[in-house]
Amino acid sequence: MSKKKILFAKKAKKRNASAAGAKKQNGTATAAPKKSPSTPHVFDPKKIKAVLFDADNTLFPIRENAKECDYEALKLFEDEGADHKQVLVAFYEILEKVRKLDDPDKRFRTYSYSLLAKKFGISKDVALSAERKFRELMLSRIAPYPAARRFIEKLQKHYSVKLAVVTCAEREWALEKLEAAGLMDFFEVIVTTSETKKMKPHSSYYTLACKQLKLKPQDCVMIGDSEEHDLAPARKVGMHAFLADYGKLEESFP
What we know:
Blueprint: H1 3-21, E1 50-53, H2 63-73, H3 75-78, H4 84-98, H5 109-119, H6 124-141, H7 146-158, E2 162-166, H8 171-180, E3 189-191, H9 193-196, H10 204-213, E4 220-224, H11 227-236, E5 240-243, H12 246-252
Parallel strand pairs: 1-2, 1-4, 2-3, 4-5
């Protein structure tokens, strides 16, 4: 046998041996799994360096309060001759459409109230007055979930973590709510629509928070009330994420 044939045979034998080693007993090749950016790291509370919170319905209740405050604020339209019940029906129809928009500027009461005023032939000044009344009523009613505050205080006392808020609210409104809830001083980073120019579940909330915290996503935990808008996008960038069930969170951070 020539030297070339001997060399070729040795290489072929080596390749066959490598292929055999890569097979399972059923004869299929086993490739090393590739780790995607969204693959969660093993959670160890002692290694966490930051905890991020959604705000509305995570730190404090908003939904029911908002309904009550809309009801009261829109009575200003009644003063202009509009039927209050008809105004409320029209408002919730507008709100349902507005909630599907991606433009942050169109997701707040300033926009929805102005559309409502236009529908009933009422001046924009009345709409702005109604929005101011809505905000005043909301701020007077905001209070943190007791379990949320206890958990935050526990994190500060027993864990060396930074705290942040990522919320779909314009910055001024977000700060006013946190202040009214007595939670402002806990957080060193607050990311809002004013910075992202997007609505959740856009990933910019989480990447920007990490940038401002000067941390990697795997060093952070996201806590929120929505799987779609809070948890899934956080996991996608590499964060740990938990539902705002404070009983279970207490167990995760013993």
